[in-house]
Amino acid sequence: MPGFSYRQPLARKNPPRAEPSTDEDNSTVDNHRDDGKPKTFGRGIIADFKRTIGTHWVKEMTNFNTKTVAVSFFLFIAVIAPTITFGAVYAKATNNYIGAVELLLATAWCGIFYSLVSGQPMMINGGTGPVLTFQAVCYDLAKQLDVPFLTFNAWIGIWVCFYQLTAAFFDFNRLIKKATRFTDETFALLIVSIFLLGAIGNPSSKVGLFHYFGTDHPHHEDMLEEDATYDYMTVALLSLILGLGTAFFAIGLRQIRSSAFCCSDYARTVITDFAITISVVVMTALRHTVFEDVQIEELNVPDTFATSFTCCTEDCRDYWPTDCPDQAEPWGRRPWIVDLFDLNGNTEVIFIAAALGIPAFILTFLDNGITWHIVNHPSNRLAHGDAYNYDTVVSAVMVLVNSLMGLPWLVASTVPCIMHITAMQEKDNKGEVKYIQESRLTGLFTHGLVLACIFALSVIKLIPLPVLYGVFLFMGLVALPGQQFYQRFILLFQQPSKIDKNHYTTHIPINRIHKYTMFQFLFFGIVCVVREIKSISIAFPVMVLLCIPARLYLHPRLFSKDELTLLDGSPEEIERWLLKNDPEGEAIEKPSKSAQEEHIAQNGLKLPDSINDDDEVAHA
Known about the structure:
Helices cover 57% and strands 2% of the residues.
């Protein structure tokens, strides 16, 4: 996927010499290399801090430019859409104890805090489906135990914080580092598919553009109650136009960067950076001017900044007006700070929470760890290093504070993280990453905008929901093509003689590639099924975790070492294999003379006079 796409290794007659790490080179060798030894008793936390914050914090806080502004607006749109959507689902699952306002506040303060103090500032934290599912289960269990949900949830969060601190102290994150492309891309494709289904139409819910064509859509039912002349088909067609228009207009604007249009390279760069922002503004303006009379579905955002739960009585056990319909006015709203000792006499709940904290810890630990592993893949060329253990401590602090305030737990959100990485990259005309600007400012500005929106919720309501579906579609479509798993899946439908040549299609028989792809697709399908079955969906992260031992112990029985290197190895491993087994570069189409001359001119190179047309041009 973009930001996780594979950069084709270049075959060379001589091994490449090590180059010093510079800002534009973004070498990842020094800052990501792991000696394989456990860094227990807090040594990993200290090493992470020194390698990241202790070395790069000032630079990451001061590298302001036009790109940071453009990417901040893009990320704001990418963050606010799922935040409001998840907020509405949280409200339904927890009887409004947690709602859109709580998720907005958690997203804002956690994003600002993480941007300032984390070791991996390119990560974006947010609400996720698995965490939402777990907290919904906790709500049902709290009712069975006859204890207030927020108190029960707070004690679970306290234990999760303790377990996360323990994991960081004893370097449990070294287990996550054993994951390979097989695990990363299985998880990444799952997340991308969630975004695509959420935009187009999820079969298990009424979310998505094509659900507007059904008469039983909740929006249509509400509008028909208010207006008997309401035409659902007009709304459905306009929603589809706005959603698809948002996605494909933004994709079109992104193509301007490599085109001849506009007056300068700077103008093309600015348009590309602001592509999704321009698209959202244009489609929103179109809806409020040309189609202002069409009753398009709007965002379900609260009117004021306050806790979502309105209380019938002082103890705040019942929700007004649902639980007390005869009461004219609510007693008030629940307080922002949770009372830890409001246990209704059930002190054993503290120990029950300790047991439930274990699967909750596994859930947050894997959600964070796998996303961090995807983002820190060598092909992304991040130069400032990873900080798994230190950022686990940061995550523990966020979980603790959110639990005490009755806010949802946030973890690393895969697709926004990948989109952040992709947006900050500089690529050449062939789409290869030249370098990436690693900055804390984008995350800081993005979540500053989210915080500002909490006090201007009426402005957010102006954006039609179909436009945000278009943002989801854009993020999924842009993320999908660069993923090798997806590329290999497409090979199943292509004529073998027409398949593009690359390192694995040249050296591995096509039937073996298909076997590996189908094996990975089997694991992907199992993870999807587990996630969709509500009664066992809480085990979804464990199923993702099982991909790691499957790759380490099962794959070597089914595939050769060479096959696994070419299909699942890191770029460095693949390049070493090619240097040893394909020194003449047969796996790569040799460039034409015109292509060589273009490469030389772009990189300021000059060939010695002794080199003739038949000699191979070394690629830097």
